[in-house]
Design goal:
single chain; alpha/beta; six-stranded mixed beta sheet; four-stranded mixed beta sheet
Amino acid sequence: MTGRHRNSGPSLGVFAGVVAVVVLAALAGWGGFRLLNRHACSSPVTVTLAAAPEIAPPLQTMADRWTAANAPGGCTSIVVAPVASSDVAAAVAGQRGVTLTGLGQPNGRAQIPDVWVADSSTWLERVRTAAADLVPPNAPSIAQSPVVLAMPQPVAAQLGWPTTKLTWTALLQRMTTGSGLKTGIVEPGLDASGLAGLLALRSAAAATGPGAQEATVAALRALAVGRSTVREDLLGRFPRAADPAAVASGLSAAPLPEQAVLEYNSAKPPVPLAPVYLDPAPTPLDYPYAVLPGADPTAAKVAEQLLSTLTGPGFADLLARQWLRAADGTGGLGFNAGPGAPSGPPAPVPATDPGLIQQTLSTWTAITQPGRLLAVLDVSGSMLEPVPSVPGLNREQVTVRAAQGGLRLFDDNWAVGLWIFSTDLDGHTPYKELVPVGPLASQRADLVNGLNGVQPKRNGNTGLYETVLAAYKAVQSGWDAGKVNSVIIMTDGQQDNPPNGMTLDQLVGELQKVVNPRQPVELIAIGIGTDVSKAELTRITQTTGGGVFVATDPAQIGAIFLQAIALRPGSGG
């Protein structure tokens, strides 16, 4: 017996060893982490997930379910924080010192999460355009909410709702022909549904033919009158009483998510809102699930496991409680969009071009943020060089076109002046004032005439430094606390130093003497072509505050001029 016991020991040990190897192999996968997590907590894992407020509750429920099933020992936790998408976008972009158009600087409260569920992929596109490595190249949608035109039901009924299909073109006509329709919008730089509505309206305006720009400006100005920075504020301006006078005096229409309209109606207001589904449909909110590149590898694995649970009917039912659709556009248990909603899931809408997003936001900023601006145009001989991509036009002509386009966007609340510069334009002075900075209400025609008369000086050189200093001082001397004060200088070359001329170091030194943080004047430099020195311009603008844009193809200066306007201080919201 004793011998048999001694002989059986090794056999059982070998068997036990084999079992142990099999068990450990099974534990090598995520299931092993889950089982071992019950007994050891030497390295606790916390996954931070920042989500648009409306989708945060269902995400927290799913996170709790996943944790209970896979990490009941408490070593792994998933913390879902409801955070406005604009706040997270500002914080993420701020890692590179980038400010997104219309957004402004980070508020200091939003932290960079492991996972970001914004309300729209347009946020990722905007960040990606500024710094591609800050967000993943792809982020799957986990929910959807169409962007609709929210209207008080009595107003919508006058337009044929819910049986008649309303188009953006018809809406544009009503907005710009004195129909009494009071439109509003949440600042599109801060709100994805506002941006989607603005893009759709601009697309309708662009299709109006020769008057496209005028139609665009008129539509954007009509929206700007009723804009709000917060969605709740906009919703509060819809009529609160059903009598005709209250309905007539309240907000008539605004682009908003279907989710916001359904939630508003759930409170049984005196005047419910109609979610009007316009044709063509704007880009819907799609709630992308983005595991950010800086996430801890273990946290990223947990995040991917959580994502795998967000595709079934259980999650769709949770979304329905928040008036959200599933990612495919269908509704979970109890979801009801109400009269006028399309039957079945909404048709897919193509993704919006990032360049169009930027251009649209820049145009919006130019229209809605009145400023005090001095435009300074280079008229040196090199501006006579033809632009190959725009046959028949030279650099000066495309630059003047850009300035003329900007002037048409500015309303009479702006104050604008016009200078030109080269060398020896006024005696030995390299710059010349064509129109002093003054209100557009009284001198728009002077500016139009001044721009029409701009001609390059053949054989003229580039007297950049003295011009920059003089222009900065001119705007500073009449600084207006009620406006954004700025200088925009457009040049295709570098400083040509005459004997005893100012050096770059001297210019920077003089600017440092006059810069006053309490009266900021932003200097925006637009380089035209490939001969400019971005380093030179950057050193100047870093001294004053501002930025540098380079249009290597001069044909692009119109779009870049709008971006430059959008960079002005105070235009970030």
